[in-house]
Amino acid sequence: MYNEFFGLAEIPFRITPDPRFLWYSPQHRNVKAKIIYHIQTRKGPVYVFADVGTGKTSIAKRVREELGEDKTKKVVFAFAPNLKTSNAFLRFVMNEFGVKTDRNYASSLKNFEQYLVDQYKAGISPVLLVDESQNVTLDMLRLIHHLFNFSTNTEFLIQVALFGQNELHEKIKRYESLKSRMAPAKLDPLDLEETRQMMEFRWQVAGGSRFPFDAEAMAEIFRLTGGNPREICKLCDATLLRAFVDKRKEIDKDTVLAAASEAFIAEETV
To answer: In this predicted structure, what is the pLDDT of residue 1?
Structure first.
């Protein structure tokens, strides 16, 4: 509705994961680099944990895109399924890699191990990326732990990266032997300067020229959202709509507060 009013080619603050609008803070770049490094060097499993809306899924998808171009990798990207047993999870993983399962759990594990050995001999490194990993059960974590036993003297035969909310970190901390094998990476909310950079980047990608948010408006957006990227996008979108209704091309703190009140953002995030 407000695109023409602000001279935009498209909506700048959608919450859908359009890679064109993905802005990387230094910590996002560092986390992605850590994941890629662990996978490329077969160094071992890694997991990313953070609050909802901080960019975990966007990083996971970018890792999949980058590794998908590598002929020496076979990448499976999956959301943690709503499964209750390690056997069901193993069958799910094997199906994703195209490996034949067996009715017997131990036989399925043996089939998967042989698959990993065959891939290693062929110069292929299977990579398992699991999003929403806070949903995995303790039994599933035990299975993931067992997969790390499939290795040579120097390299793991399967590379694993888990992406989840903070509960994932708590689950792994309680599983000491798994914790000792996995490298953690944490995403924190953006700071005020990063919030400004993300907003301006999205504005430019959407075809905007003159940025309408003044300094106090950006500070208020940061305060209300706590630097959470998804919440920033929701509030910016609501604020642009409020400004359009009021026929205001300059956005100040009061416009942000009015939009936050209407969208119930202030009550939910402060």
So the answer is: 78
The pLDDT score that the predictor gives to residue 269 is 47
- Report, as ranges of residue numbers, the positions in the chain whose pLDDT lies below 50: 266-270
Q: Alpha helices of the chain — where are they, by DSSP H?
A: 3-6, 26-40, 56-68, 86-97, 105-121, 138-147, 166-173, 176-179, 192-205, 215-225, 229-245, 253-263, 265-269
What tokens were used for 248?
Answer: 């205001």
Which CATH code is given to the segment(s) 190-269?
1.10.8.60
SS3 263: helix
Looking at the chain, the domain(s) classified CATH 1.10.8.60 span 190-269
Cα angle 162, 167, 170 (rounded to 5 degrees) comes to 90
Report the SS3 class of residue 3.
Answer: helix
To the question of pTM greater than 0.70 for the whole model, the response is yes
Pairing state between β 159-164 and 46-49: parallel
Task: Give the CATH superfamily of 26-186.
Answer: P-loop containing nucleotide triphosphate hydrolases (3.40.50.300)
Q: Which residue type does 51 have? A: D
